[in-house]
Amino acid sequence: MELRQTQDGRVALLAYTALDRLVRGMGPHQPWVLYPTERLGDLDSVQPYQVIYLDPEVPRELWRQPGQQEAAR
């Protein structure tokens, strides 16, 4: 799970339905957490987002690198 800003300025929640899809979409150094989809409303109350993208493939130049704390923006 990660939040990114879209080109039109919205905050997007990037969520992955399986670990292999996370690695394919965000790279092998992406931290992850297991979060139940039925509780995404709880997450929105703490960290608002406007759109959810499931299993997106992010360009490799935006992937986290080993030891990187924050995602490239």
From TrEMBL:
| Superkingdom field | Bacteria
Tell me the protein's name: SseB protein N-terminal domain-containing protein
Q: Tell me which species this is from.
A: Actinomyces lilanjuaniae
What lineage, starting at the top, does this entry show? Bacteria, Bacillati, Actinomycetota, Actinomycetes, Actinomycetales
